[in-house]
Amino acid sequence: MDLNDIQDAKFLSSRNWDYLDDSKINDLNKKVDFIYQTIDKNNLNNIKAELDKKTLEEYVDEYNPMDNQYTIGCISSTKFLVEKAGFNRPEDLNELTKYMVKYRPIKGDGECFYRSLIYSILENIILTNKIMQMKELLILYYEKISLDNKLVNEKEYLTTIKVMNINIVKEILCLIINQMEIDKLKAYILLLKAFHFYSEFDFGILYFTRYLFYEYISENEDKLYSKENATIELGSLLPDGFADYSRINNIYFYENYYKLHLMNPKEFAEKIVLYVTPFVFNIRMNILHYKYDENGAKSIIEENKFLNEKKNEYNLQAEINLLYIKDIHYEIYYKYDYYQDNKICLDILLNKKEDMALLGDNNYQKKQEDIQINNIKNEIKPDSDFSLFHEENKYIDEKDKNLNNINVNSSDKNIIFKEDNLL
Question: How far apart are CA 360 and CA 354, in angstroms?
């Protein structure tokens, strides 16, 4: 196939985001002002007052890192991650410190990828003080998650909008935007409180995230993945059971996928979602795959091929780092520089119990930082890449698992995580 003969329109392209275009900033601000006018101010004040009464200190004091009930967990160390995962491999700790200094546990209920992703994006926007990006997300939410969206009545799998509290996300995003203009730290605290104390916000922002994927995939169903992978049709990335790979028919059952998986809350993310993520949000996404191999093969591999060379004028300039544990669960990891630059905010939710236990461990935290600094000086690179294109022989329903006590090994046939020839 001659790539020169294929028009760019045949390939996936990144979503156009307007906030980096100075000529459109005024228009965006006008839209945000209009959204403010649609909000019940009394209700907005009540939400703010209720959030102000909530304290994260009590949350941190009661935090049990082995309990899967916490939507967004407290910042924890790499050592704790190794112990929690139950691998008990000393070399894992040294290997992990090449990539990360801290990680944040995420609730495992089938939404771990979507929650890790959208929380990381919102956190990055606040910590880097990119207020126009937050405004753009507010506008998108207002326009898409609405009863006026004609698709709501046309598509059965979108009717969730009719029964959810669609205002709570809009209202809390408005509060965060207002706070970003005054105090970044307080805006960050609002974000944490929203996820922890408002289940309706968590549900709404996750549904919005899924909707953005739905909109992008449905608009690009007939596209090829990229020029670098010109033989890969987007539909071929659908999970088994939703695609007819016959070269005669080339039928992809997108509608079934939207209904049964993508727009079905608590259903885990499939590979098609992973591979379009950078196009939907214009981000660089790194996934650190931490898995157990009883044969002694490397258990930690970083995949960072996502859109690295597809930067454009609309790029969010954000790097999102997700930790993929035991082939079934996503959490968030933090690189040394990012953590140090934002330590004041990130440490608001710190696993204090773990820190207390580690104080007597030969200055463990200092050793962690020394390893990170040494790695940076020596420019340590990931040893290898892997392909996230994988197949599921049996679907794993995360909500029925206790993700903190699982023991998955390479003989488990529920999920096969393997390289193939797609990249």
Answer: 11
